[in-house]
Design goal:
It contains 9 helices and 8 strands. It has helices spanning 10-23, 33-36, 43-53, 57-83, 132-148, 188-196, 201-219, 229-240, 243-252; strands at residues 91-92, 100-109, 115-126, 152-160, 166-168, 171-173, 176-178, 183-187. It has a 6-stranded mixed β-sheet with strand order 1-2-3-4-8-5, with helices on both faces. It has a two-stranded antiparallel sheet with strand order 6-7. A hairpin with a 7-residue loop joins strand 1 (91-92) and strand 2. Helix 8 (229-240) packs across helix 9.
Length: 259
């Protein structure tokens, strides 16, 4: 089967997927009880979750471990979304400043008819991950870039946007409504479209991705973690007399009555 993506080579795509998986790093380390409770879990929440959802303790503990790992893994997926552009023509990924810079000598057409030679990109995983202060900082940064270079545009590119879009970014800065036709909110599919010239480039990448991940995982030495949290809780259960009390000790060991 021939490689279906014309905008990135098979070798570069496999290398990028492999590097992203390796970013998981310490998240693949086994969880023991100490690591599990590093930030102090909420025993009462776990008890509610188990009872309301009808899970057993093994499922609840595994779910909490997955949640903790997943919280860190979001950064690694951000790495995937950003760094792939260093393999795509006309794009660069600076060490600092902007997440991606897209430049073409012949110019880049924007939806409103403007033509610029450079687009500076701030990239976010989801449309709702920016709070008001970070949104303000990003917008002011883009305004400053436009003031120093009138031959550019600035994009807030969202991997998971509410819609497929390339629209003016309308926001509020210090209580004032702000908008500029060259400061735009762009969904990931539309950014791939602009960069590659292929309308469904992002879709094509997504269709190839699962098979490549499986291939890389199968040929990469990774340690499947053996988590010992449940075993340690069961040992603590014998000491404390009940699993519930063992669980409570994670959050309340110094509270009156529990010790």
């Amino acid at each position: 089967m021939s490689w279906p993506l014309s905008f990135i080579s098979e070798q570069n795509f496999i290398e990028h997927v492999k590097t992203t998986i390796l970013q998981y790093g310490e998240k693949l380390e086994p969880y023991n009880l100490r690591k599990f409770n590093k930030n102090i879990v909420d025993p009462i929440k776990l008890i509610f979750d188990k009872t309301v959802y009808g899970f057993n303790w093994e499922a609840i503990v595994k779910d909490e471990i997955f949640r903790q790992r997943d919280k860190s893994n979001n950064n690694d997926i951000g790495y995937f979304h950003q760094k792939i552009f260093k393999y795509i023509e006309f794009c660069s990924v600076p060490d600092k400043g902007w997440d991606v810079v897209f430049s073409k000598n012949e110019g880049i057409s924007l939806p409103d008819g403007d033509n610029v030679h450079t687009i500076y990109v701030e990239m976010k995983n989801k449309h709702n991950t920016m709070n008001a202060p970070s949104s303000k900082t990003a917008y002011i940064k883009m305004q400053s870039q436009l003031l120093s270079n009138d031959d550019c545009a600035c994009f807030l590119v969202e991997a998971i946007a509410k819609h497929s879009q390339n629209i003016i970014w309308k926001t509020t800065v210090d209580g004032k409504n702000c908008s500029h036709k060259r400061i735009r909110r762009v969904s990931m599919d539309e950014f791939y479209n602009l960069v590659t010239g292929q309308e469904d480039a992002f879709f094509q990448m997504c269709m190839v991705l699962p098979e490549v991940i499986e291939k890389v995982v199968a040929t990469t030495t990774t340690i499947v973690p053996h988590d010992t949290v449940l075993d340690e809780l069961k040992s603590l259960e014998h000491e404390k007399g009940s699993f519930i009390l063992a669980l409570y000790m994670l959050g309340f060991k110094d509270y009156k009555g529990f010790s």
